[in-house]
Write a structure and sequence with these properties.
By secondary structure, this protein is of the alpha+beta class. It has one domain (2-13, 42-189). It contains seven helices and eight strands. It has helices spanning 2-11, 13-23, 62-66, 75-88, 91-94, 112-118, 154-159; strands spanning 42-50, 53-61, 102-110, 133-142, 150-152, 165-172, 175-181, 187-189. The chain has a six-stranded mixed beta sheet. The chain has a two-stranded antiparallel ribbon with strand order 5-8. Strand 1 and strand 2 form a beta hairpin. The chain starts with a helix and ends with a strand. It holds the Pfam family ZrgA. Residues 120-134 have a biased composition (Basic and acidic residues). This is Zinc-binding protein.
């Protein structure tokens, strides 16, 4: 499954490039239309549904999820990091995956902020970085994948209100698609 997710950006590259060029004039502050630009309020989500295997990968600036990007030193900042991490542990709720009888088989949460939270005594060389990211990777086993009709990010937008838009790339039974979801338009059909 990991190779499918790794192939997703290449499979959707023509679609993403076309969409980036369509929006390039709207986002002059972006780095030459780069899809990897660190933009507060924006996140990326890759989704692959292959048979009963569902894989999701969320990439977001930490600012969107915890409200800051510096190392969490105060108790208040540490509490925000712990709360975000706890919420990210439940992808079924965040991505509206109530259907399909999906069970979580693997979760990987990566961020310099999480490492600081786990290993306070360990000095992290990224602490001084001005752009901290949070990456969440999920693998789910869906007993009834045919019942998965849509991806609904309304709960994610509700829990992380600084997230204004999510660029979604999805490969599913209906083929591949790329779309930008917002709090006003939080759903995408499989």
């Amino acid at each position: 499954m990991r190779r499918l997710l790794l192939a997703l950006p290449f499979a959707l590259l023509p679609l993403a490039a076309a969409q980036a060029s369509d929006h390039e004039h709207e986002h002059d502050h972006a780095e030459h239309g780069s899809l990897d630009a660190h933009e507060h309020g924006a996140a990326r989500l890759n989704v692959v549904l292959d048979g009963q295997a569902l894989e999701l990968e969320l990439e977001s600036p930490a600012m969107n999820l915890v409200g800051f990007e510096h190392a969490a030193t105060s108790d208040a900042d540490k509490a925000k990091v712990a709360a975000a991490r706890s919420q990210l542990q439940g992808p079924q709720a965040l991505f509206g995956l109530g259907a399909g009888a999906c069970t979580l088989s693997e979760t990987e949460l990566e961020s310099a902020l999480f490492e600081d939270d786990e290993h306070e005594e360990h000095h992290n060389h990224d602490e001084d970085s001005e752009h901290s990211e949070i990456h969440a990777h999920y693998q789910l086993d869906c007993k009834k994948p045919g019942e998965l009709k849509q991806l609904n990010l309304s709960e994610l937008f509700k829990r992380f209100p600084a997230t204004e838009k999510i660029q979604v790339q999805l490969i599913g039974p209906s083929g591949q698609q790329g779309v930008e979801l917002t709090p006003a338009k939080p759903s995408l059909g499989f």
